Amino acid sequence: MTLDFILRAALQSMITGHHAPYCYRAHVPGQGYVNDGSLQSLRADYLRQLERDVQSEIANMGFSPDYAEPGYGPQYATPIRGILFANWNRFPRDFDRVLEKAGYAVEWSDEWSTCEDCNKAFRTEPDGFSWSPSGGYVEGIGMLCNSCRDESAE
């Protein structure tokens, strides 16, 4: 089963009503993001917006082959097929488990970045009190993990 097939199946399961997105509201002009799809009169618009937003999330999904972040990776559980980054609220509840069974690790796109040099993933937002960055922005180069950052400084 390919990743594209799994992602499209998740979208289709939500459009047909078999599953609901974990946390999603569609926009209603003049009222904001209040449409949860429960009102029959707003259901068609909700489904159109959901489909468009999930397709956009799929198209913009990030990928990395491995972690550069300490506490992740080879000494723990390197993902067989890589790491996927997205806003997982738009997908069905527990969809991360489906992807993990298929060999992927799942991370939030607003908390992680990938190195411009080695393409490994590192966290950009803290996950605990003692966290320190494992990469960052380097002027003229972009986002680099600490290993590649040290190599570029030599």
Describe this protein's structure.
The protein contains four helices and nine strands. With 154 residues, it is of the alpha+beta class. It has one domain. The protein has a three-stranded mixed beta sheet.
Placed side by side, the strands forming the largest sheet appear as 3-4-5
Q: N-to-C SSE series? A: HEEHEEHEEEEEH
**How many domains make up the coordinates?**
1
Radius of gyration: 18 Å
Q: Unreliable segments (pLDDT under 50, ≥5 consecutive)?
A: none
For the largest beta-sheet, the strand count, sense and barrel status come to: 3 strands, mixed
Termini distance? 44 Å
Assign an overall shape. Answer: elongated
Helix % is: 25-40%
Number of helices: 4
Q: What tags apply to this protein structure?
A:
single chain; 31% helix; two-stranded antiparallel ribbon; 4 helices; 154 residues; alpha+beta; 3-stranded mixed β-sheet
Brief account:
Helix content is 31%, strand content 22%. It is of the alpha+beta class.
Q: Layout of helices and strands, plus pairs?
A:
Elements: H1 3-15, E1 26-28, E2 32-35, H2 40-59, E3 62-64, E4 82-86, H3 95-101, E5 104-108, E6 112-114, E7 121-123, E8 135-138, E9 142-145, H4 146-153
Parallel strand pairs: 4-5
Antiparallel strand pairs: 1-2, 3-4, 6-7, 8-9
Helix pairs in contact: 1-2
